[in-house]
Write a structure and sequence with these properties.
Elements lengths: L2 H4 L5 E7 L6 H11 L4 E6 L6 H7 L3 E4 L5 H11 L4 E4 L11 H10 L4 E7 L8 H18 L11 E4 H6 L9 H12 L3 E7 L13 H19 L1 H30 L5 H41 L7
Parallel strand pairs: 1-2, 1-4, 2-3, 5-7
Antiparallel strand pairs: 4-6, 5-6
C-alpha cells in the first residue's frame, strides 16, 4: 500500500497564510495539489496589495480574505473555519517543498502524534540575513531552557496537525509569534509531537520576507514573557521576588551593621526602602503560588477539552 493510499478516507486540508506572495503562490498551490491529490487547498489572503489572491485562485486554491493583519490572526481564522481530519500548514513563499507534505501527514498517522513539525535544515542561512539566524538560534535555546526540550525549531511554519490539536488550540497571538504559542501549547499539555528534518529553500526572486528582525524579535520575546507568566507563574513571580529580596537585603546590610555597632538606625529612607522591597518580594512570591494553583486548574480543563476531540482512527 502506497503512502497516499494510507490517507484514503481522511479529510485533508492544506492551509496557507499569505501576504503579497504573487511570485510564488501559484507554484506552491500546484505543488500541494500534486503532493496531496485528495486535499483541499485554502489560501488565506491577508490584505495582499498584489495579485496573490488571483494567482492562488487560478492555481485551484480556495481563497479566503482575512482583514486582520498578522499571521496569528490568519491562523486563528483558518483553524476556526476549516473542519478536517488533518491540516497541513505552510507558507506561501515557496521556501517549503510541497513534496515533503506526505512525510508530515504520514508521521501523524504512523507515530500516533497530533503535530508533526518540519524542522528547517539550513535555516541559519535564512537568505543571508544574520539577524534572523542569530535570533532563531537564540530563541530556540531560550525556549528549551524555559519550556522544555520538546522542540528544536519553534519557528518552523511547515507543520501538520490533527483535528484534536487544531480544535483545542486557542490561537491568541496576532503575528509571527503564533508558532511559539503552538509549541508552548503542545509542551504544556504534553501533546505527542514529532520533528522531521526537511530542506529549507530560498525565496523566489520578487518575493520579500515579511519578518523584521528587531520588531518581530521584540514581539516574540514579549510572547515568551507572557507565556512564561501564564504557564510557569511560580518561576516567573518567584524570579521577580528573588530579585526584589536580594536588592532589599543588600540595602539592609549596612543598616544592620550600624545598628549592631551603635543601636541606632540613622538612615530611615534606606530602611523604609529595604523594608518595602522585602514586603514586595513576599507579595510576589504569594502571587506566584496562588496563580500556580489556578494554572494547574486551567491545564486540567485544556487537557479535558483536548481529549474531548476525537483523534485519528487507528490504521
Amino acid at each position: 500500500m502506497s503512502q497516499l493510499e494510507v490517507f484514503d478516507g481522511l479529510d485533508l486540508a492544506v492551509v496557507i497564510p499569505c501576504h503579497n506572495e504573487e511570485a510564488s503562490i501559484a507554484g506552491v498551490v500546484s505543488g500541494f495539489r500534486s503532493a496531496l491529490p485528495g486535499a483541499k487547498i485554502y489560501v488565506y489572503d491577508n490584505n495582499s496589495s498584489d495579485g496573490t489572491a488571483k494567482r492562488a485562485a487560478g492555481a485551484g486554491a480556495i481563497v479566503v480574505k482575512e482583514p486582520r493583519q498578522g499571521k496569528g490572526h490568519v491562523v486563528r481564522r483558518m483553524f476556526a473555519d476549516i473542519d478536517a481530519d488533518i491540516y497541513v500548514m505552510a507558507d506561501g513563499d515557496g521556501t517549503y517543498d510541497p513534496a515533503d507534505a506526505p512525510r508530515l501527514v504520514g508521521a501523524l498517522i504512523s507515530e500516533r502524534v497530533d503535530m508533526a513539525v518540519g524542522t528547517r535544515m539550513g535555516v541559519e542561512d535564512d537568505a543571508g540575513r544574520a539577524g534572523h539566524a542569530l535570533g532563531n538560534k537564540g530563541f530556540n535555546v531560550l525556549y528549551r531552557k524555559l519550556f522544555g526540550n520538546d522542540f528544536t525549531d519553534i519557528f518552523s511554519g511547515y507543520r501538520a496537525f490533527t483535528r484534536r490539536f487544531v480544535k483545542s488550540f486557542p490561537a491568541l497571538s496576532g503575528g509571527f509569534e503564533i508558532e511559539t504559542e503552538m509549541s508552548v501549547h503542545a509542551s504544556q499539555l504534553k501533546i505527542p509531537c514529532v520533528e522531521i528534518p526537511l530542506a529549507y529553500g530560498r525565496r523566489q526572486e520578487g518575493s520579500e520576507s515579511k519578518l523584521r528582525t528587531v520588531r518581530d524579535g521584540l514581539r516574540i520575546f514579549a510572547m515568551f514573557v507572557q507565556l512564561l507568566k501564564e504557564t510557569r507563574p511560580v518561576f516567573f513571580f518567584g524570579s521577580l521576588a528573588l530579585g526584589f529580596a536580594l536588592v532589599g537585603f543588600m540595602l539592609s546590610i549596612p543598616l544592620i551593621a550600624t545598628y549592631l555597632d551603635t543601636g541606632l538606625v540613622p538612615r530611615f529612607p534606606t530602611a523604609i526602602l529595604s523594608t518595602g522591597l522585602m514586603l514586595t518580594a513576599m507579595l510576589l512570591a504569594a502571587v506566584g503560588m496562588i496563580l500556580d494553583s489556578l494554572t494547574r486548574s486551567r491545564v486540567e480543563q485544556k487537557r479535558i477539552l483536548y481529549l474531548g476531540v476525537p483523534g485519528l482512527p487507528v490504521q
